[in-house]
Amino acid sequence: MKTEKLGKRVVNLCAKYAKAETAIQYCNKDPEMMEAVSKHYNRAILAGKKTSTVRQWLDDRITTRLYHIAMNMPDEGYSMGSVIRVQMGRLVGVHDRTQKYANSCRWRATYGCVEVKLTPEEFRNIRCDGGLVTCIYPNQKDKVKKCWWYAGKGQKQHFELLKVGGYIYAGYHSTSKVMALEGGTANLEQQKQAKAQKLLSEKEKKAVERKMAIATRQQYDYADSIAVNCEPGTKAFILRCGLDKNKRYRGSFLLKVATEKSTYSIPYIQRMIKYRASKMINR
Questions:
Q1: What is the reported pLDDT for 5?
Q2: Of 156, 138, 135, 130, which Cα lies nearest the Cα of 236?
Q3: Of 158, 86, 78, residue with least CA distance to 111
């Protein structure tokens, strides 16, 4: 507790005063605090940044988080991409999804733009979970949390960014509290199985790896995803990556697409493949 209070005092001092000498004067001759303040300014100098305040450092952290939120926002579906801007106060995170256009082409490129403004309260409670930008209401004791998430409706000029209300548990979204509980419980059970597999013998591990390799080469459709992942997350992934809900795709291809366009969705593609592999192992 003492260390936490000291840290807050140091941050406040460094944010208030531009020079280390001035900040040290207000340390009340506390040796521990004077040393901590001195270390902070030295780190700033080594990093090649201004020693004026910690504000710039905090702004960078907030901007980075806004960028990650923008990166996971639904896509408008323009073939040449869109620019996603997420703003909180004076700070903005921008994720540029546009592609270069060939100068030799006679047609003019059409790009999209999505702009989202967050309140400070929304920013505090938002996180990227289950492949969706999700805002969980604070001060909830129940393990199944009430929340809302951003979802896209339509494409291109007909695109709408909606806030969908519902529930979340262990990364599983649903408009139904019961469904969120069931889906989240299944997710946790799969996580337990994954941990148990790490404790297997070398022979058993090789058998699992062979099944995983086979499962990765197999085809997957919409039903395969919602069997282990939430439906809103699956729909968001399809829209974000420009896939067809009625088609089947190889597991390796889905992993590649997730890596290129939707980093936070990788664990959920892996979960679907592991589920297929586990069914082969248990036969």
A1: 61
A2: 130
A3: 78
Cα 164 from Cα 235, distance rounded (Å): 13
d(CA 156, CA 75): 9
pLDDT band, very low/low/confident/very high, at 102 (cuts 50, 70, 90): low
What counts of helices (H) and strands (E) characterise the chain? 11, 10
Burial of 4 (0-12, 13-18, 19+ CB in 10 A): exposed
Q: With the C-alpha atoms ordered 188, 193, 198, 199, is the resulting torsion angle positive or negative?
A: positive
Spatial CB neighbours of 157, under 8 Å, sequence gap ≥ 6: none
Type of residue found at 164? V
Strand, helix or coil for residue 104: coil
For 220-263, write each residue's pLDDT tens digit. Answer: 999 999 988 888 888 888 888 888 889 999 999 999 888 877 66
Which amino acid appears at position 249 of this protein?
Y
Question: CA 13 to CA 9: how far, in whole Å?
Answer: 6
User: Exposed e or buried b for every residue in 209-225, given b needs 16+ CB within 10 A?
Assistant: eebbeebbeeebebebb
Sort strands 91-96 and 219-220 into parallel, antiparallel or unpaired: unpaired
169 touches 183 (CB < 8 A): yes
- CA 125, 225, 123 angle in degrees (round to 5)? 10
**What is the C-alpha to C-alpha distance for residues 98 and 91, in angstroms, rounded to an integer?**
22
| Contact between residue 86 and residue 72 where contact means Cβ atoms under 8 Å apart | no
Please measure the distance between the N-terminal and C-terminal CA atoms of the chain and give it in whole angstroms: 54
Q: Contact 269/251 with Cβ under 8 angstroms?
A: yes
Please state which of the ranges 183-192, 214-223, 244-253 shows the lowest mean pLDDT. 183-192
Neighbours of 100 (CB within 10 A): 8
